[in-house]
Amino acid sequence: MDINYEGPRTRKKMGCFFSYCLPTRLTTLPDLQRVPVGRSGVQTLEERLIPTRANARRIIFIGDVHGCIRSLHELLKSCSWDETRDHVVFVGDLVAKGPRSLEVLDYVTALRHRKACTIIRGNHDDKLLRWYLLLQSLTDPHNHLQEINAASLPPDLKPGDEHRRIAASLKEEHVNMLEALPYVIRIPLTERPTRLLVEAKFNEYIVVHAGLLPGERLEAHSRWVVTHMREIRRGKASDGKDTRKGPNRDRFWWASIYSAQKGRSCVVYGHDASRLLRIGQEARLVRGLDTKCYAGNKLTALVVDIAEGETLVQVDYCG
Prior knowledge:
7 helices; 6-stranded mixed β-sheet; 20% helix; single chain; alpha/beta; 5-stranded mixed β-sheet
């Protein structure tokens, strides 16, 4: 499918549904494997939000929420979250699978409006937007029960997707927020945290939903790679769902290869729920936080405080 991205727009006085201000709008459903992240997809956290000993600020990285709003509230409480000193960074996939996606969007949209959080775009967030755009082309975009010809859909969209139901109920502020989300956030550190979960030398955190290819410039990554990749198979990014037979030596966890490089960045990511919490010597430069909360497991946060170091906080699933 062809791709057409529009650049920055200003509010129009016309009655068009898309007349509100968005930094980037998808005018057709994109082929994420071909579209690069680009410079606009990579952002750097504001300097005032970066923790130092002097400002005593903290960053709270939170794994895939997937509609589990009650678990999110409990996790923030367990982190002793204080909006005046803490900045929350979500690694993506706010929606789907869990029970309360719209409530999560309401809550996180309000947080972002107060500049209390930063959110990375995940594959389920992207899928929700793709369904939203598709529904706008139908006679009644708010009716998720309309008949849709499955053969006319892109390969990653199915008529029975729960994203379709959620998309039919999205508010304008949800769409504004979701379409503005970056694919990558850089958090440069001026001071080293006192204690790390795994000893490693790095001078910044890079936050991405799925992963990074070793040696690839951030802006050169495709949007599919940073939202879907789990493995590197036969030298190419893979989502790990390839069931074709082949020797295991042709399949590698991207994080182990990344950590073997002489890098100076620690990647915080989610997405790979099959591996759950992955922090160890074989992957010393990554912090994998997707612990499959929606399935009755735990929701995980990584709290970074320069004086106290890195701390993991987890809560059990509670809806």
